[in-house]
Amino acid sequence: MRKLIYIVIGIIALLIAMVITGKKSVHHEIIINAPVEQVWQVLTNTEAYPEWNPTLQLAKGEIKEGENVVYKFTQSPDNAYDVPVTVQQIIPNRLLNQKGGYPFILAYNHKYILESEGTGTKMTIHEDYSGIGVNFWNPKPVEVAYGKLNKALKKRVESLN
After folding, report:
1. Residue 19 in contact with residue 104, Cβ under 8 Å?
2. CB 69 within 8 A of CB 62
3. Counted domains in the chain
4. Is the pLDDT of residue 66 over 90?
5. Are 87 and 63 in contact (CB under 8 A)?
6. Which residues are CB-neighbours of 44 under 8 A, at least 6 positions away?
7. In CATH, what number is assigned to the domain containing residue 23?
């Protein structure tokens, strides 16, 4: 019986350690030759995403604080899936923060951060991940997809000038 108790305690300790150490992130930034207001307008006009955005399409919902939305996320032509998020915070022309996933298993905190950079805009996509599942997951394909999104956003915004 004692052996079983030690095994259970060991498994619990391992799971706690995996939750605590299960942290990764992806990050991509790009300079867009346009003011932040123009970048923000294109980023938040989800109805126009089909015209330029190869990575995300808004499938359900509206981008408003507290709203639950669903994106169709395309990592590659053969890998697309729905991603539900909750819009946490919107600071116009500066920040769009969305969260989703499953706490302690695989949760994510996604941010679009816009900063003035001279006459242009530094556009950053940053996503933090936490939970047990992070230990078994490679976020690199997501980072590549966000790079495609940023490059497409840059092309779209700069083509409007």
Report:
1. yes
2. yes
3. 1
4. yes
5. yes
6. 63, 96
7. 3.30.530.20
Q: Where are the alpha helices (DSSP H) in the chain?
A: 2-21, 36-44, 49-52, 140-159
pLDDT of residue 18: 61
Task: State how far the Cα of 124 lies from the Cα of 28, in Å rounded to an integer.
Answer: 6
CA distances (Å), origin 11, targets 5, 16, 33, 55, 135:
10, 9, 53, 39, 16
Whole-model pTM: value is 0.87
Residues composing the chain: 161
Phi and psi, residue 92, nearest 5°: -50, 135
Q: Rounded to whole angstroms, how far apart are CA atoms 85 and 100? A: 4
State which residues form the domain around 73: 2-159
Neighbour tally for 35: CB within 10 Å: 17
% of the chain surpassing 70 pLDDT: 94
CA distances from 146 to 11, 28, 76, 149 (A): 36, 7, 11, 5
